[in-house]
Design brief:
The chain has 1142 residues and is of the alpha+beta class. It has 41 helices and 18 strands. Strands 6, 7, 8, 9, 10 and 11 form a six-stranded antiparallel sheet that branches. This is oligopeptidase A.
């Protein structure tokens, strides 16, 4: 084996290449002769200074870092996964499927496998390389093409087709796509003289011909002939399809059909204010024009209609923006209608005359009509069809055997409007290219769709606006099967909306481009908000599998927008909004920044590589989330003797018994479950040192081996992020991230961390010495270990302040903390009031719902509180949004969700919290208020949509009320007697605020250092998975943190930075950066009189309501009257004295 790289070691006839593509482009030849000058030419730099990504395999994608194999016959490289091979199954004489099928006789060569980058190929055209197309098929197609155009031109066209189809399918489909494309090109070149002339004269390039749907360039007479054929065959197609449906229904239909039930009845559309008012005359059967479709069977006619709708119709089917938009190439004026008037339910196209008001009035009188009339563009029509689909999929699964699922959506044009007719034809073509719903046929005046029996119940619940208060999603009715069709339809609709912006032929303006993008994709955003929330709060295996499947689709969808050069150019060239409209000016600037940071300004090869990186990162993040959740559940420590749990409260022991029972363990077993941090809450109470050690080691070692080992995942994610930064001309990923934060530069972040590590670590070492003295002889001559810290800190706290967590826990009952603490503080400071809504639906019985009001009684929004831990819920605390405030979208109020992970008590026992959990409840309420107080126009700027190192500012500030005497005395009451916490104990809780802050600050800073270490390195410096622990040790030692202090999160379970494609990656420092702002504001509030309404109004008006509509630091300076001061933070954490020497 020849190792190609820094050294060469010959071992056998097989070789493994480990060179990076940049090294290959540099021309560092190896002794096999694979690299040479031709390879250097093919890898030349593009105009942005980046090396073009080499494409390989039948998938025509870059090297992804995984195993690749080289064909023994054609010497082409393939991804092993695409070939369904592994390092164990590949043979020394392996040949690719194309070479096998072509039966080529070649001198035998050795097969090659490798784990990193294959050698680049030269520019010479390879006969076998190929996208997996059999040579006989290629010869046949090329020969036929040579009869129409020259041989050289035919070869160029064929090459372009190969590159086009290679990226669209795997091996099983590549040949089929190739032949279909070549037949289409051949047919049109033969029949269309102008097309052939454009190609031979160079007006149309082979690449453009292969990339376009050449039916657009077909001869007009041929198009007319095909349309006539479709018109003539429509009736027969419908008849055949319905006969097949009847056969299917007969095979699954129950023996008796219940009477008085309609299959589907579409309720009347209430949003028809754009049309003329309905007339009073009764609608007769003769008044309704019928399309040329078969009548329903007599059996179906006999079913009695129940006029009660199965589900309400979408609230809005007429889209104001589509009726008033400027005419584009694909606009036309006309009417679209779908009606349900037949018993047994058949969606029927209803042709109307748009120029006749009476016809529109008749439509509005039909109780089951869906229609849109006016100036129509593809986006509006696509939305309309999505609404039809949303109604169709609402049919209960048990009822589907009774439904005909053929839908004819017809449109009618005014007479003598040839321009509109041409635009309609263009739209039909466009819709065919993008349709996600199975299409039976297209005619010049209709689209025939088919909704099969596999459509899933409830997709409409996710895509349409909810009728519940504030738009709360019907969480009790949304089930796992709802998500797939809803997400796919949402993606399709958003893509159509974006396409309508790109294809708009009018001059780009702020309104028709930037604002149009802001409006687009709302059904998808609504669906994803629920989907992502349930993934974190109440997941299951099906949701996790769907998350894994959809993650790369979401990434590709985002890339299709922000890596779209045409769209980027349109945004860049759009006329600006008025100068006095500051928020709109900022929106335009922000969109340009987002496009450029995503890579829209890069060369095409670099953009393709960015797409690959983004897709792969999304897949890896989903794998990481699921592995961490499984490991956290699987690594619970099980004990079989209750005596080993000495020190835990009876409630904690009962919870451990319940956890063991849920895992199927026999009675007498107890399971100590893990939370997401390294240090576990039970360590503060467990007296048995060996049990403490096992619990700590289980926490620290999770995700580092076995089936849930995340180390290979995080290593690959670090490499991909580093490569992304290189493509965008940043030295590392941290520099890329922080450039868009309030910190502005990596140097600023590193300087702040260094300034804090010294005093924090010094304090922690003093605290360690204090704890060892407290432990005395109990350590048996051993030094204090990490698993001992929480136990002896709890004891020392009791000695110094005469209380421990166990002493105060009875005073922190969950409901009282929430209502008399968290919400009480919001009332006193901001004047808001709340009302619990037990009548509204939730996804779990533990979730509480509160309606919130401003001081004047006007509605503010809605808060959901999910405070209890579950095995299918991620750890920690966080805030989600179901609805974000936006004036543009007509969302005046937000709906937010707060999550905690308080252990579920045994049946009949109270739910009690430790003080850290109380503080977390106040913290998450700070996030909630940030979202609820939002008062912006554009959704991009709403609420918490601010930089990472600013978003924690409001939440950390809100923590101050947890220890405010007036607030603490209101919620700290004994769960049995209701008596307030004794004043002496209350004073001790407040005075103990700085206790153990050296350790707490150090374990946080250690995690922040790891985050920066992973993201301030180049791709070549990322360690392999076996050396992750060594990488961590080196990073912490370099920062001055000893091995004793374990980070709050170790890399393998550091969800903040690995659980999403971006998340808090290179941004975990944000908590301490934001806390500088929070403690400085806390000092300002104290100077202004503390818990006063006037202070709350100022904070709400100048900071919390602004979102990202203004510069965050400018908002802070406007509140404080100057830049942030770090001194209050040093005082708060007890670091000022220790920081003098820094």
């Amino acid at each position: 084996m020849v190792m190609i790289g820094e050294s060469s070691l010959r071992r056998s006839a097989r070789k493994v290449a480990v060179r990076h593509p940049l090294e290959e482009a540099a021309g560092a030849d190896d002794d096999s002769g694979v690299f040479g000058s031709s390879d250097l030419d093919s890898g030349a730099d593009d105009d942005s200074g980046h090396v073009a990504a080499q494409l390989y395999c039948i998938c025509r994608k870059p090297d992804d870092g995984e195993l690749m194999v080289q064909c023994d016959a054609c010497s082409q490289w393939f991804h092993a996964a695409c070939m369904r091979l592994s390092e164990k199954t590949v043979t020394d004489d392996w040949k690719c499927p194309t070479c096998v099928s072509s039966r080529s006789e070649r001198p035998p060569q050795s097969a090659s496998t490798r784990n990193v980058d294959p050698p680049a190929t030269g520019p010479a055209r390879e006969e076998a390389g190929h996208a997996g197309i059999p040579a006989k098929d290629r010869d046949s197609c090329r020969t036929a093409l040579c009869k129409v155009i020259s041989q050289d031109l035919a070869s160029a066209v064929e090459d372009a087709v190969l590159h086009t189809v290679a990226g669209e399918a795997r091996l099983a489909e590549a040949s089929k796509l190739y032949k279909a494309k070549m037949r289409e090109i051949l047919f049109n070149l033969k029949s269309n003289t102008k097309l052939r002339q454009s190609l031979t004269e160079g007006v149309l390039s082979p690449a453009s011909l292969a990339a376009k749907d050449v039916s657009l360039l077909a001869d007009p007479e041929l198009i007319a002939s095909r349309n006539e054929e479709r018109r003539q065959s429509l009736t027969s197609r419908l008849k055949v399809a319905e006969e097949e449906e009847d056969e299917l229904q007969a095979s699954v239909r129950p023996q008796t059909l219940p009477a008085a039930q309609a299959d589907i009845v579409l309720a009347g559309n209430p949003a028809v204010e754009l049309l003329s008012a309905p007339s009073d005359h009764a609608v007769k059967e003769s008044d309704v024009a019928r399309p040329n479709v078969p009548e329903v069977s007599d059996e179906m006619d006999a079913i009695e209609i129940d006029e009660t709708p199965v589900m309400e119709p979408p609230e809005t089917l007429s889209y104001q923006e589509s009726l008033t938009a400027e005419t584009s190439q694909y606009d036309w004026t006309g009417t679209l209608a779908v009606t349900a008037t037949d018993p047994g339910f058949r969606l029927r196209g209803n042709i109307t005359e748009p120029g006749t008001a009476n016809d529109r009035k008749r439509l509005s009188k039909l109780p089951s009509a869906l229609y849109v009339h006016g100036r129509i563009n593809p986006s509006a029509v696509h939305k309309f069809i999505m609404q039809v689909h949303a109604v169709a999929v609402s049919v209960p699964e048990a009822e589907r055997h009774r439904h005909k699922r053929i839908v004819l959506v017809e449109y009618f044009l005014p007479p003598d409007s040839p321009a509109d007719e041409a635009n309609c034809a263009l739209f039909v073509k466009q819709y065919r290219d993008r349709a996600r719903i199975p299409v039976l046929d297209f005619v010049d005046q209709g689209i025939l769709l088919y909704f099969g029996a596999s459509t899933v119940v409830g997709a409409a619940l996710l895509l349409r606006s909810s009728t519940l208060p504030y738009g709360l999603p019907p969480l009790d009715r949304i089930t796992t099967p709802c998500f797939r069709p809803a997400l796919e339809l949402g993606l399709a609709e958003h893509a159509a909306e974006v396409a309508s912006v790109v294809e708009d032929r009018s001059a780009p303006t702020f309104e028709n481009t930037v604002v149009a993008l802001e409006r687009a994709g709302q059904p998808l955003a609504q669906c994803r908000a629920v989907f992502n929330s349930l993934l974190a709060s109440n997941t299951n295996d099906e949701l996790d599998a769907l998350d894994t499947e959809m993650a790369p689709k979401f990434a590709a969808h985002t890339d299709s927008i922000f890596l779209n050069k045409a769209l980027y150019n349109r945004v860049r060239d759009a006329s600006p909004p008025p100068e006095d409209d500051i928020e709109s000016q900022r929106l335009r600037e922000r969109y340009l920044t987002m496009f450029e940071r995503r890579g829209a300004a890069l060369s095409e090869p670099a953009i393709n590589e960015m797409r690959h990186i983004n897709e792969h990162l999304s897949k890896l993040a989903a794998q990481f989330r699921q592995a961490v959740l499984k490991a956290t559940n699987d690594c619970a420590v099980v004990v079989d003797d209750v005596a080993l749990l000495d020190g835990l409260s009876p409630g904690d022991i009962a919870s451990a018994a319940a956890a063991a029972s849920q895992r199927g363990l026999p009675a007498g077993r107890y399971a100590l479950t893990l939370v997401n941090t390294t240090t576990q809450p039970a360590l503060a109470s467990l007296k048995n040192r060996e049990v403490r050690r096992k619990l700590f080691e289980a926490s620290r070692a999770r995700c580092s081996d076995g089936a849930c080992d995340t180390r290979p995942i995080i290593v690959e994610m670090a490499q991909l992020r580093a490569r992304m930064a290189q493509l965008l001309s940043y030295p590392n990923y941290a520099s890329y991230v922080i450039a868009d934060e309030t910190a502005s530069s990596v140097n600023d972040v590193n300087a702040m961390l260094r300034r804090l590590i010294g005093p924090a670590h010094a304090n922690a070492e003093r605290e360690r010495a204090d704890l060892e003295r407290c432990a005395g002889d109990e350590l048996g001559g051993d030094r204090l270990q990490p698993w001992d810290w929480a136990f002896y800190a709890n004891r020392l706290q009791k000695q110094l302040f005469d209380f421990s967590d166990d002493d105060v826990r009875p005073y922190f009952e969950v409901n009282r903390v929430l209502k008399d603490g968290v919400l009480f503080a919001a009332n006193r400071f901001y004047g808001i009031t709340f009302k619990q809504r037990n009548d509204l639906p939730t996804y779990h019985k533990d979730v509480m719902v509160f309606e919130l009001f401003n001081e004047d009684g006007s509605p503010l929004g809605m808060l959901l509180a999910d405070y209890f831990a579950r095995s299918n819920k991620q750890g920690g605390g966080w805030m989600d949004s179901y609805i974000e405030q936006s004036k543009l979208l007509g969302h005046p109020h937000a709906i937010v969700l707060n999550n905690l992970n308080v252990p579920v008590p045994a049946e009949g026992e109270p739910a009690l919290m430790i003080f850290d959990e109380v503080t977390t409840a106040f913290h998450e309420m700070g996030h909630a208020l940030h979202g609820l107080f939002s008062n912006v126009k554009y959704p991009l700027f709403s609420g918490t949509s601010v930089p990472r190192d600013y978003v924690e500012y409001p939440s950390q500030l809100n923590e101050m009320w947890a220890t405010d005497p007036a607030v603490l005395s209101n919620y700290a009451r004994h769960h049995k007697t209701g008596d307030p916490m004794p004043q002496a104990l209350l004073s001790k809780v407040i005075s103990a605020r700085r206790f153990n802050q050296g350790f707490a600050t150090t374990e946080y800073l250690a995690a922040a250092i790891l985050d920066q270490a992973w993201h301030q390195i180049s791709p070549t410096n990322v360690p392999d998975s076996a050396n992750v622990a060594e990488f961590e040790r080196n990073a912490l030692q370099a920062a001055g943190i000893s091995d004793f202090f374990v980070p709050r999160y170790r890399s393998p379970y550091f969800s903040h930075i690995w659980s999403s494609a971006t998340g808090y990656a290179a941004g975990y420092y944000a908590y301490i950066w934001s806390e500088v702002l929070a403690r400085d504001t806390q000092s300002w509030i104290g100077e202004q009189g503390g818990l006063r309404r006037t202070n709350g109004d100022v904070l709400r008006g100048k900071v919390l309501s602004k979102g990202f509509a203004c510069d965050p630091l400018s908002a802070f300076k406007d509140l404080k009257g100057g830049p942030p001061d770090i001194a209050p933070l040093l005082d708060y954490r007890g670091l000022r004295d220790a920081s003098v020497a820094v």
